[in-house]
Amino acid sequence: MSTRNIKRESSGPAPHAPGSLASFEHLVHAGVGMLRRVLERLGLAGPKLQLARQPVSRPAAPRRSARVRRGDRRRGFTLVELLVVVTVVGLLAGATMAALGKARETAKRSKTETTIAKLNDVIMRRYETYKTRRVPVNPQMALDRSDANRFRLDALRDLMRMELPERFNDILKDPVVDGLERPALSALYLAIFNQKRPDDKFGPAECLYLIVNCGSAEDRARFHRNEIDDVDKDGWPEFIDGWGRPIYFLRWAPGFVESEIQSGDANLDHDPFDVYGLDPGAYQLYPLIYSAGGGSKEPSLELSPSHSYDGDPYNVSIGSPAGEGNTHIHNHHRSLR
Question: How many other β-carbons are positioned within 10 Å of the β-carbon of residue 108?
Fold first, then answer.
């Protein structure tokens, strides 16, 4: 074959080089054509859907046959195919939203458990100090040994009531034990209360914040801003759970049946503050820190906000069930201690 023949055979139009502008325009217009055919089948557009084209100086594209164009038309989407795709996408979106919702609830519960665990540590360290607590008594009192033992037990319980208040009545009420003086911490609570009187709606939650806030700086530093709010806007903050609701506090909750640590049996678990066995039926009570969880906006236990302490911590109505629910989060779970 001569050189002249070789040149003549290679003088035809060159195919589109991959990545060239001509190749890109060819792909774009092919996609537009497919979209036009789908919309025409659905009756959503006329046959004149076109893409404005700018003239580009390039070699002429090879002419496609009518058979190829008819094949392209047969490859368009049907209405059934589109409906199947839409259905699958909807199912996937629903499953994704359900998974996200469950993840959010898990995160809120985890945040609540973390806050309650920290509060439990603060309150229980304070609670344990009453085992060796000095009782402030009137020096003019003259007691024999048996009366002194009884006085100490009653005075310790009254001190807990005044220094670990669970309701505002505990702050306002003077000592119920004759000869017991109001401690300095209780006097501070009373001064704060008189400066700004709170609403009674979230009293047990606001008392919990008062206890921690009047404690050590180290205890206060353990809590972040997102764990504290003033839900009822009365100027008395509360610790809040992952759902933004107040976390409640009961110093003693003898009626709390969900407890995993409070046996209610004086023989197996006698009150550690009653070292002389003066109350045969006294069993160990633990402070309760409680969130209703995500299933309820209100706590489903009896808080008895108007209860007035009379010297008996075993009022079984306090902490007793007041509704149904199984999402409660509290420090009487062994996992949070």
Answer: 18
Q: Using CA atoms, how far apart are residues 248 and 206, in angstroms rounded to an integer?
A: 8
Helices (H), 129-173: 145-163, 168-172
pLDDT tens readout for residues 254-283: 999 889 999 999 999 999 999 999 999 999
Q: Where are the beta strands (DSSP E) in the chain?
A: 228-229, 238-239, 248-250, 288-291, 329-330
Number of neighbouring beta carbons within 10 Å of residue 37: 19
Which of 206, 214, 169 shows the shortest CA–CA distance to 189? Answer: 214
pTM, rounded to two decimals: 0.72
Alpha carbon distances (Å) from 136 to 103, 155, 179, 186: 51, 9, 9, 13
Quick: pLDDT tens for 95-149: 888 888 889 999 999 999 999 999 999 999 999 999 999 887 666 677 788 888 9
Nearest Cα residue to 179 out of 118, 123, 236, 138: 138
Residue 237: how many CB atoms within 10 A of its CB?
A: 18
Provide the 8-state DSSP code for 167: S
Contact 262, 285 (CB under 8 A): yes
Radius of gyration of the chain (CA): 38
Q: Are 237 and 223 in contact (CB under 8 A)?
A: no
Centre a 10 Å sphere on the Cβ of residue 62 and count the other Cβ atoms it contains. Answer: 10
Contact between 145 and 278 (Cβ < 8 Å): no
Distance CA 111, CA 98 (A): 20
CA distance 318 to 304: 6
Q: Give the C-alpha separation, 126 to 113, whole Å.
A: 20
Task: Return the residue matching tokens 């505002």.
Answer: 168
Cα(304)–Cα(323) distance, integer angstroms = 14
